[in-house]
Amino acid sequence: MKPETGPAGAANDLNRLILAIKPLDSLAVGFSGGVDSSVVVAAAVEALGAGNVVAVTSASETLPAREMKAARHLARKIGCRHEIIRTGELEMNEFAANPPDRCYYCKTELWKQVRKIASELGLKNIADGVNASDLGDFRPGIRASDECGVAHPLAAIGAGKEQVRGIARELGLPNWGKPAEACLSSRFPYGNTITAAGLKRVERAEELLKENGFRQLRVRDHGDIARIEVPPEVFHKLTNGSRSEIVKGLKELGYSYVTVDLEGFRSGSMNETLKNSS
Fold it and tell me: How would CATH label the architecture of 6-170?
């Protein structure tokens, strides 16, 4: 059966999400400020009351400053307590070396700290924003969260990406149409060491494209090469008046070559090398 769409479908999905969250009693939610985790936090407030919900965000080098600002704003709008922690992924060799299961180590540390906050505040459970669409990709971070006893309310009701956006709109969340974001470490090929300087360079590179009107994008860092991913329908914007500004800006950040990926934007494109080698 296809999921119901439109306002009625979104209202039904929200009700199902609230019913799925209610048995959790009290909750600390890993909160990035993206659509998925925002929906879980907002629905948890509806289901459990603001006093029984805490949103937890990691102030890591892998989270762009823009996203941290958005997370703070959204937590205030939703009306729940917001805790900021620091996970220090770059201090972990297992993460900084950038193996394919990098996210496993990052998420293990994150959930250990979220569990600690939940315990200190008397909250019984912890949850994330994993949705049903995430389950088909290579996601070692989900394995870590499962081992840490993290609930996945969106996945539990079978809500995929589009359904989650519908729920966000039903909840009145301002970021319901926000393009998907990902940890900045996903911009580097596996095996290339992740450094604070490299993360900052990628963050600035993507800010440059956003300032030139691009919404959904990635700048993949291949050492001297910046590989730009944007949807094919906006390729033309890279060849108009903004082209020279983008090339100039990226070269000022230290890239020798600037390329456009003709396959266009796609989440998790670095995982394609894993599929090709399997």
Answer: 3-Layer(aba) Sandwich (3.40)
